Every structure is written in structure tokens, then in C-alpha cells.
Amino acid sequence: MAQASPPDLTSDVALSIIAELAEPRSAANFFYCPASAASEPARTGGRVVSTHTAYCTELMFVRRGSMAVATPAQLFHLVPGHLLTVDTGVEHGEIHEDESEEVYVGLSHTSAQLDWDRRGSTLHLIGGTDLTYLIGAIRRELSSREWGFERAVHGILEHLVSCQRSLEPTGKR
């Protein structure tokens, strides 16, 4: 039986996907691979994995199924509800364990890229929104894991989602 192809990445679909980024999560469902691990190779658990280096801060979550992500910090196993943040410069690779549906959001200083099922979109933000402070705040909260950090990250992600103006498909990758 052929796998059904996902719907085209229209603005409505993309906006519903990006809204999932800001869904509340428990502290146990946030994972982080900091830039301090960037000088080490990804830990693959003995598997052969094609890796790449993050050109920006990457947020990853799974909508359906499961996926493993090999990073220098550890081999993360993601299922729906988990959110992994990988800092710029960190080598990592995805291991697709089943028929999963993953979402990747790349955050650089002035733009955000949404990649869902290899259909890319650029997230246009209101005005000249500078993401540097949002990226830094997410990193600080995930690094400290102080009491209530998960609510702080949730609020930051809600702010990011509220800053979006539109999404434009950039084509298949």
C-alpha cells in the first residue's frame, strides 16, 4: 500500500504546524544540545548516520511516529510532544525509525525557516523582529533548567509564533 503524501505546505497548513511549536510541554519533554558540544562528533550508538552541522539554531519535533537524533551530547529519541533544540555549529543527524512526520524550524538572527516533510517555507516576522534575543532566551532557559523553565520556554515560543506575519513556500528540499 502506497504511503499517502502529506498535503501541500499552504499558509494554513504551515501556520497550524508552527502553532504546534508553542504547545505546552512538561520539563521532561524538552531536550537541548548546546554549542559547547560542537567540537565533538555525533554519538550514533553504532549506527551509520549521515550528519550535518547546524547553520542556525534548530528546533525539532515529531508530529507522528518517532525519530532519533544523534548529537555529540547523546542520542535523543523523539516522539510527539518532545522538542529538541540544537545550537548553531553542532554536528547532528536524524535517524528515521518509522513512518514519522517531523518538523524542523531553523532560527537565525532575522529569519525562521520551517521544514516539514521536505517542503520548506520562510517564516516572515512582524517588522524587523530580531530573533537573537529569543534564541538567547531559549538557550539560557534550556541550559539552566531552573524551576519553571518549561513555562518560560513555552512563553518564548508563543511570542515567536505571535510575531509571524506570513509563510511563503520555498519549494521542496
What are the salient characteristics of this protein?
alpha+beta, four-stranded antiparallel β-sheet, 3 helices, 11 strands, disordered N terminus
Give a verbal description of the structure.
The protein is an alpha+beta fold. It has one domain (16-172). It has 3 helices and 11 strands. The strands form 2 sheets. Strands 1-6-3-8-9-10-11 form a 7-stranded mixed beta sheet. Strands 2-7-4-5 form a 4-stranded antiparallel beta sheet, with no helix packed on it. β8 (101-107) and β9 form a beta hairpin. The radius of gyration is 15 Å and the shape is globular.
What is the gist of this entry?
By secondary structure, the protein is α+β, with helices and mostly antiparallel strands. Helix content is 23%, strand content 35%.
How many beta-strand elements? 11
Strand order within the widest beta sheet? 1-6-3-8-9-10-11
Weakly predicted, low-confidence segments: 1-9
Based on CA atoms alone, the radius of gyration comes out at 15 Å
Helix fraction? 10-25%
- Mean of pLDDT: 78
Write the layout of secondary structure elements.
Elements: H1 11-21, E1 30-33, E2 52-53, E3 57-64, E4 67-70, E5 75-78, E6 83-86, E7 91-96, E8 101-107, E9 112-116, E10 119-125, H2 132-144, H3 149-163, E11 164-172
Parallel strand pairs: 1-6
Antiparallel strand pairs: 2-7, 3-6, 3-8, 4-5, 4-7, 8-9, 9-10, 10-11
